[in-house]
Amino acid sequence: MNKQLQNIFFQLLRLGLWGLGRLNVDHRLSAEDWQQLYTAAIKRTVEGLIYDSFNLLQEDQLPPPSLRMKWAIRIDQIERINMKMNTVIATQYQFFSDIGLSPILQKGQGVAQCYRSPLHRVSGDIDWYFECGGYAEARKSLKKKHISIEDTAGFSLNYRYQNIDIEHHKKLFDIRNPFKTGYLKNLQKRYADQYQYLKVEDQSVRILSPELQLLQVNVHILKHLIALGIGLRQFCDSARLYHTLSSQIDPDALKKIYRDLGILQWTHALHRILVDLIGLPITDVPFPYPKDIEINWIVDEIWYAGNFGYQDERFEGGKTSSLSMHPDGANRLWTNFRRYYKYAPMEVFFYPLEQLYSKVIGIDRD
User: Fold this and answer.
1) Residue 158, helix vs strand vs coil
2) Pfam families under this entry (predicted)?
3) Beta strand extents in 201-301 (DSSP E only)
4) Cα–Cα distance between 226 and 348 in angstroms, integer?
């Protein structure tokens, strides 16, 4: 995709995400142009947002009727999956409550409620975080119900329930620096009385306080960027969270959390990306960022790597290895470590060590 069409892609993304503005083009897009936009949107998991831009387009700016119909069918499928996920969330939360557990819903469907059209957000899986001994108790209960689970590295497990992917986590935040473990525990205690509840169908489901929601989503983005890439959807998640929660957060407290965790420089870069690329109003940014902070190469990486880096066209045909199933994964990881070091040095330094540690220690074994 050429730069001109890429610019149009981001215009459409911002139109769909915020519901404001007009598409600025000096020529009519061809059927081939629209096919490229459709493919790029799916690769970056934002096809629902691009679809939402159509209401703001003039008649001669819309995609061809055949593609519009194909797109509408895909959106209908996304809506159905999201409705199914909401049902599963409500059912599972009731199940966990019945056995005395009160998990926290992470990211995903909780963040979707910040969107103009929550059902148009492409969903991944359902993530639950369990406090104290809740993780082991939930795992035991799943086994009693003969649900097939897979214990994975990273202190997590996954399984399928009613054809939906579910993950359970022992760790709430994707912070790799082990010297911040105590700080994160104290942070959870400090905000323990500020949990919120989200209505999912008829069930009230526990979610994090605004500051901790933002921290969780933003460090998750950093984790995957240090690795091999992440989709634009996660950046849209962060932007919609800031926009929705801007009046509820304490900017000074949030900035201190980022600084204490050693990721303030990364956060500054993220904020500029959200404003310049995603269209977040500058008034929703909780604290100023340096105007000269470099983001161009990060934006390029976001664009080319796609969702978790599996379809990066720059490395098609590259070799996989025991270190990474991604094409040329080892070289790409090393390049990312060098690039991101100045933004979050301790997260980069401890990333490979934590990966190794979690594979040895972080997997439950019966």
Assistant:
1) strand
2) NTP_transf_5
3) 203-207
4) 7
Side-chain-side CA neighbours of 351 within 13 Å: the count stands at 21
The answer to whether residues 327 and 315 touch, using CB atoms and an 8 Å cutoff, is: yes
Please give the single-letter amino acid code of residue 204: S
CA distance 64 to 69: 9
CA atoms within 13 A on the CB side of 232: 26
Distance between CA atoms of residues 131 and 140, nearest Å: 15
> Which tokens belong to 234?
């996660």
CA atoms within 13 A on the CB side of 97: 11
Q: For residue range 309-324, list pLDDT tens digits in order.
A: 556 565 455 565 555 5
Token digits of residue 279: 């269209």
pLDDT at position 124 is 86
- H or E element: which one contains 16? helix 3-18
N-to-C CA span, the chain: 49
Q: What count of other Cβ atoms lies within 10 Å of the Cβ of residue 282? A: 12
Cβ atoms of residues 109 and 80 within 8 Å:
no
Query: 139: part of which helix (H) or strand (E)?
Result: helix 134-144
- Name all domains of the chain by residue range, CATH numbers in brackets: 1-63 (no CATH), 64-360 (3.30.460.40)
Does this model's pTM top 0.85? My answer is: yes
- For the chain, what percentages of helix, strand and coil (3-state, to nearest 5) are there? 60, 10, 35
Place of tokens 């831009």: 53
Whether pLDDT at 326 is above 60 = no
3-class state of residue 30 by DSSP:
coil
Q: How many whole angstroms separate alpha carbon 190 and alpha carbon 250? A: 14
pLDDT classification of 336: cutoffs 50, 70, 90: confident
